[in-house]
Amino acid sequence: MFREIVSLERAKKILSEKFIPKTVGVEEVELLEAHNRVLAEDVKAPFNVPSFNRSIVDGYAVRAEDTFGADEEKPIRLKVVGKVNMGEAPSVAVKPGEAVEVATGAALPEGADAVVMVEYSSREADEVLIYRSVVSGENTMKIGDDIKEGEKILEKGEILEPRKIGVLAALGLTKVKVYKKPKVAIISTGPEIVKPGNSLPLGKVYDINSYTISAAVRECGATPVNIGIVPDEKEEIEQAIKNALKIADAVITSGGVSVGPKDLIPKVLAEMGEPGIIICGVAIKPGKPTTIAIIDEKPVFALPGQPTSALFVFHIFARPILRRMAGYSNREEIPSVKAFVGEKMFSARGRRTFIMVTLKREDSGRLVAYPVPRGLSGAITTLAKADGYVEIPESRQFLDLGEEVTVHLFGN
Predict the structure, then answer these.
(1) Does 410 or 253 have the greater pLDDT score?
(2) Which residues contact 17 (CB under 8 A, 6 or more apart)?
(3) 32 within domain boundaries
(4) DSSP string of 93-131?
(5) What is the pTM of this model?
(6) Could you tell me the pLDDT band of residue 45, with boundaries at 50, 70 and 90?
(7) Residues 243/338, Cβ–Cβ less than 8 Å
(8) 380 versus 378: which is more confidently predicted?
(9) CA-CA distance, 412 to 402, in Å (whole number)?
(10) Backbone angles phi, psi at 136, to 5 degrees
């Protein structure tokens, strides 16, 4: 079939025009299972937090006016009429000239409006000497000081990190509505690949892509569905993709996208409906044979078979789409850092070139990027050693030693 090699910018534009990522639904999950999920609705506080006036230190609950003038030389003497531990309801009230011993987090007894820290007091039997005055509200947290009833605490689209889950727990919630995780079917093709765990005959290699892509899919907030290894036979590939489209929200294949007689993925996708293939070749290295189709309103990303190329193309094209489908916001898709080139890096003529790099921190604190050795797209060590990649535009032949560059990081 005819291939029109397009620039990276053109490919991204085509993809954004042909496919608008949408979430795949909403579900309610237990709060303990909500880590890194995306909120599907605003959360408002059902009550005040705290719901009672409380002490934020160990000490003595007092009427602030009873402590005025207290100092080291002339302490104020108050009668201790009780004690309140954390989690207890006060059984006494504070009257003029009285104090109640309180623990950090304990409810303030009626009549008290401040707390004297234990460090500024000394106990004598049923009395306490106060060596420092306090003002009303000092060392206390009032009802609603943290969260007010009806206040919007978290917004739709926020990622539920541990601290946010803690906020929800503070509101007494045990379940929360989040966006469903999109299902992503993963298919590996090629006569040379074998499932890990089986014996490895001469000339064969283990299936790497199913595992690296599955892990990358999970990082996007999606659920991988591993279809397995499919032979390089047109009918079997077609059936595997059709089955994948029935059970998943997106499909990712690896291998079979070049120009050889057994590279059948583009041929199969071209016959599977409109709009079908929208991209069939991108002027980048690695990843030139990248093919993308839209079938049954679902994206199909056909990645190169070489492991490094496959993972790289996934990060460039599939990752942003899958994150949007999982409900993540429109913020920066791929984290990045600034670094300095530690070794001259050359480009491929006429193509946007991406070079896998490893990052090292010099004693001076400067971050330096070095090209990963054996940087062929099929080298397994490139995958393990790379922290990210740098980009060389088509208009440049190399990145010079000492030049400041942006390193796009793999993972989070």
Answers:
(1) 253
(2) none
(3) no
(4) ---TTEEEEE-TTPBPPTT--EEEEGGGEEEETTEEEE-
(5) 0.83
(6) very high
(7) no
(8) 380
(9) 26
(10) -55, 130
Give me the pLDDT at residue 136, please.
Answer: 97
Residue 91 half-sphere exposure, CB side, CA atoms within 13 Å?
8
Q: What is the phi/psi pair of residue 99, to 5°?
A: -145, 155
Query: Is the CB of residue 114 less than 8 Å from the CB of residue 138?
Result: yes
Q: Tell me how crowded residue 290 is: count the other CB atoms within 10 A of its CB.
A: 26
Q: Report the alpha-carbon distance of residue 210 to residue 252 in Å, rounded.
A: 10
Q: Based on the fold, state whether residues 248 and 300 are members of the same structural domain.
A: yes
Q: Which residues contact 63 (CB under 8 A, 6 or more apart)?
A: 94, 96, 98, 111, 112, 113, 114
pLDDT for position 410: 80
Instruction: Evaluate if residue 333 carries a pLDDT over 70.
Output: no
Please give the Cα distance from 213 to 255 (Å, whole number).
13
Looking at residues 53-72, what average pLDDT do you find? 97
Q: Residue 282 pLDDT > 80, yes or no?
A: yes
Q: Domain check: are 195 and 273 in the same one?
A: yes
d(CA 100, CA 85): 10
How many helices and strands in the chain, by DSSP H and E?
A: 8, 28
Is residue 111 included in any domain, yes or no?
yes
State the pLDDT confidence band at 276, using cuts at 50, 70 and 90. Answer: very high
Q: How confident is the model at residue 2 (pLDDT cuts 50, 70, 90)?
A: low
- Per-residue model confidence as pLDDT tens digits over 5-29: 999 999 999 999 999 999 999 999 9
Per-residue confidence (pLDDT) for residue 48, from 0 to 100: 95
> Over 70: is that where the pLDDT of 350 sits?
yes
Beta-bridge partner residues of 293: 277, 300
CB 281 within 8 A of CB 3: yes
Contact 114, 65 (CB under 8 A): no
Same domain, 128 and 196: no
Burial class of 250 by CB neighbour count within 10 A (0 to 12, 13 to 18, 19+) = buried
State the total domains in the chain.
Answer: 4
Chain-centroid distance of CA 226 in Å reads 22
Which pair of tokens denotes residue 107? Answer: 């409810």
Structure token digits, residue 123: 């106990």
Helix runs in 191-249, H state only: 209-219, 234-247
Q: Are 312 and 320 in contact (CB under 8 A)?
A: no
Q: How many residues does the chain have?
A: 412
Range of the domain at 347: 336-409
CB of 252 closer than 8 Å to CB of 290: no
